[in-house]
Amino acid sequence: MKRAHIFNAGPGILPVPVLEETKDAVLDYMGLGLSIMEMSHRSKEYDTVIKEAQADCLKIMGLSPADYTVLFLGGGASLQFHMVPVNFLKNKASYINTGTWATNAIKEAKFVGETIVVASSEDSKFNFIPKGFKVDQDSDYFHYTTNNTIYGTEWKNVPEVGNVPLVADMSSDLFSRELPFDRFSLIYGGAQKNIGPAGVTMVVIKKEFLEKANTHVATMLKYKTHADKDSLYNTPPCLPIYVVHRVFKWILNQGGIPAVQAVNEKKAGLIYNTIDGSDGFYRGAVANKEDRSLMNITFNLLTPELEAKFIDEAKKLNMIGLKGHRSVGGVRASTYNACPVESCEALAKFMEEFRKANK
Ligand code: PMP
Question: Does the CB atom of residue 172 touch ligand 1 within 6 A?
């Protein structure tokens, strides 16, 4: 199979063994004579898929099923921007603005109730992660985006917010590095970057927090509806959940998050070292050095024309998805969990060659 070096920001790269398992399951699931897509979501075979995915998710995070519940929902991470406040905002909620997705989350919370932006990096085009802010202790929750996909910035530490419940959008760095997951009350993420295909969103909620949710909420938007029915209140995105189930097995087979993180650090190191050793030919204009992301590596070249040439020549070498987000331009290499070290080696090598040929 000819495989490109895939640096797409999302939907992003998936592990080849998972693609192969999915191909088989799409044609004939476990020799049952029907596709995983043709199966009842209430069959015992599918029940095993969803239950194992939920159990493996908690296993990967080191969380207990007695304390946390895992939901697989539709609507993308963008629906969570609304579901979080509609379920948990009673008096006021605190948010940090670190980019487009955080901005969108804030916008949706404002429809629901008082929303305080405790810090923002908007004035400097979101090129850093705010530090040293205070969160009102009477906030219903504190929301932040752990990794900013567009700008390539990432929170290195979980913010200290006292006793305020922590809520995080982890769409673009889910399971890429170790985090004290037990400090969070709610974690959500669209699957399409690190854990599966588009179409399913993972939500992990602390049961104690869920008990405090607002009750006057439309049925489909209420987390409790889905929690009470184990994500089978209505027909779930069956195929995407199957793929997520296989990705979780793949993560566990790699040795869990610590092993995946070690590989991610190696990959990002290859590219950041090339940027830093390029005498300013590649410049990390989009993200401050100390806040650089392990997953979305953003950089600029001297002119937009040179950037276009870089992206074009890379494409000829089978490297795809390197164009920066349309709102910021530049170059972005997304090195999600399934991206192999060889792809990052190939990119680093190409960056060196391109620099020598164009300086
Ligand atoms: N949050 C982050 C951090 C993202 O990167 C994205 C998508 N790129 C979203 C939210 C929106 O996700 P979705 O398209 O699943 O609604």
Answer: yes
Q: Are strands 166-169 and 147-148 parallel, antiparallel or unpaired?
A: unpaired
**The pair of three-digit structure tokens given for residue 19, joined into one six-digit string:** 């693609």
Tell me what pLDDT residue 285 has.
67
> Following DSSP, what letter does each residue of 274-333 receive, concatenated?
HHHTSTTSSB--SS-GGGB-SSEEEEB-SSHHHHHHHHHHHHHTTEE--BPPTTT-SEEE
* Token pair belonging to 107: 């916008």
Catalytic annotation on 101?
A: yes
As a residue count, the chain comes to 359
User: CA nearest 333: which of 3, 2, 6?
Assistant: 6
Residues near 225 by Cβ (< 8 Å), separated by ≥ 6? 219, 233
Taking residues 252-276, report their average pLDDT: 98
Helix (H, G, I), strand (E, B) or coil at 11: coil
Q: Which residues make Cβ contacts (< 8 Å) with residue 6, sequence separation at least 6?
A: 12, 13, 320, 321, 339, 343
Catalytic residue among 101, 206, 222, 224: 101
Q: Give the pTM.
A: 0.98
> How does 68-80 read in b/e, with b if 16+ C-beta sit within 10 Å?
bbbbbbebbbbbb
Does the Cβ of 146 fall within 6 Å of ligand 1? Answer: no
- What is the rounded average pLDDT of the residues 75-99? 98
Cβ atoms of residues 301 and 281 within 8 Å: yes
